[in-house]
């Protein structure tokens, strides 16, 4: 199963943000199972880096990003992604639109985010970390 991870899931893992951290860390650990392939975009990584750098400094944030990047697939954001987000009148948040169309281009079966309302237009299932663990993993 191909699963797209939104930036807020990555931020939670990198910064050990409670109470979400135990759930988001379990989501990230799915990368070690053959059954799951985790995806995110460079945009989500940039957002996650920004918040990690604020919390622990540049050097440690880069180390965390290196480990994170080795565990997940980095989905492209190209002109097709941009045009999809721009041309869909249902997409009000451009960043969410870019993430959604990138997930679609990479045949993701689900999106995991702590802002499911931002993906109200999604044609693929959208879960928060807890719901995904309860409904899909177990």
TrEMBL record:
Residue ranges of every copy of the PIN domain listed in the record: 2-115
Pfam families: PIN_3 (PF13470)
Descriptive protein name: Twitching motility protein PilT
Species of origin: Algoriphagus sanaruensis
């Amino acid at each position: 199963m191909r699963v797209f991870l939104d930036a807020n899931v990555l931020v939670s893992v990198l910064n050990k943000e409670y109470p979400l951290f135990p759930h988001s860390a379990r989501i990230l650990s799915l990368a070690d199972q053959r059954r799951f392939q985790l995806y995110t975009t460079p945009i989500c990584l940039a957002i996650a880096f920004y918040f990690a750098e604020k919390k622990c400094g540049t050097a440690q944030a880069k180390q965390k990003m290196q480990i994170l990047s080795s565990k997940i697939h980095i989905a492209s954001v190209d002109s097709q992604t941009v045009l999809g987000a721009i041309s869909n009148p249902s997409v009000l948040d451009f960043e969410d639109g870019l993430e959604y169309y990138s997930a679609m281009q990479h045949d993701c079966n689900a999106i995991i985010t702590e802002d499911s309302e931002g993906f109200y237009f999604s044609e693929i299932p959208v879960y928060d970390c807890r719901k995904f663990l309860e409904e899909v993993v177990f």
